[in-house]
Amino acid sequence: MYNVEIIGTGSFVPEHKVTNDDLAKIVDTSDEWISQMTGIKERRITIKEGTTDMAVNAAKLALEDAGVAASEIELIIVGTVTADYYFPSTACLVQAALGATGATSFDIGAGCTGFIYALSVANQFIRTGMYKTALVISAEVLSKITDWTDRSTCVLFADGAGAAVVRRSEEEGIINIYTGAEGDYQEYLACVAAPLGNYFMEVQKTEPKQTYMNGKEVYKFAVKSIPECVLKVLEGTGYTLDDIKWFIPHQANTRIIDVAAKKLGIAIEKFHLILHKYGNTSGASIPIALDEMARTGLLEPGDLFIIVGFGAGFTYGAQLVRWTKAKA
User: Fold this and answer.
1) Tell me: the pLDDT tens digits for 259-295?
2) Disulfide: which of 23, 229, 232, 239 matches 318 by Cβ 3.0-4.6 Å?
């Protein structure tokens, strides 16, 4: 088995900012309520770029950061639930845009755990020797499946993309992975696709519905799964919570992260948060946060960190990673 390390990161968010005060003009809410209940102050909502556009922009920055040419990429995996097309996959569209000719390309739909799932799959392909270099992306345009009349959800969701280049290495970067799913909770966070309907049926075809969320159930699952995932991914590694410099959680709600931190007995300052300025970008939130940390020098060679998330499905997972990239 080969070692795998992250050698480059990149992220992209739309220019258009939507503040809490902007949302207060649309639904019955306020900056005070949103800030207190979610920790979000503003978010980015696209008025120009689609999911593929954002994925390509993030990917280009990650390739540049890694010093890797598109022709070197052998595998592209995109975590998304808001693709521009049912088919072809977003990954195939990214492959064409980058010129990564011949790279195996496919999407993964794991909701907010999309980046963790995608990175886990890429890790296995590289560890077993099938590929040497892979591009992992998570990109979401949640604004197109958001009900902008529902104040419980429209204040949360946003658009963005993050990417990472991973490669076979002499150093151990990705140390351990833990993932899972609980499909019994499917009805608590969902967005129905095109309904059953065809020429041979006497039905009135309706438009796909928008995102539905049972906030209380999602909260209960999240505050339970984050601590469990963190502890599970440490099992058998020889590392403890004290060895971890940073925790990079899915950015859903600061109250969830606060409770999870307290359950683990970890100072909230060790959780890198970007929720206040970008909102909940689903699977893109972790790679966006990771890229911000890399660019601003928060990550140093040898640092241990854990990425952890949960999402529709319900899906969940965590990865224990050693940062190996030297500062620029």
Assistant:
1) 999 999 999 999 999 999 999 999 999 999 999 999 9
2) 229
29/26 Cα distance (integer angstroms): 8
- Is 272 part of the annotated catalytic residue set? no
CA angle 82–275–30, rounded 5-degree value: 95
The structural architecture, per CATH, of the domain 3-170 is 3-Layer(aba) Sandwich (3.40)
57, 229, 250, 272: the catalytic one is 250
> Across the chain, where does the E strand assignment appear?
3-12, 17-19, 42-44, 75-79, 104-108, 133-141, 159-169, 174-181, 189-190, 212-213, 246-249, 304-311, 315-322
Q: Does domain 175-322 have CATH number 3.30.365.10?
A: no
Q: Are 148 and 118 in contact (CB under 8 A)?
A: no
Q: Is 123 a catalytic residue?
A: no
Specify burial of residue 239 (Cβ count, 10 A radius: 0-12, 13-18, 19+): middle
Choose, from 3, 20, 92, 112, the residue flagged as catalytic. 112
Q: What is the pLDDT of residues 229-246, one digit of tens each?
A: 999 999 999 999 999 999
253 is catalytic: no
Burial class (CB in 10 A: 0-12, 13-18, 19+), 225: buried
Cα dihedral sign, 258-263-265-271: negative
Structure tokens given for 195: 């309904």
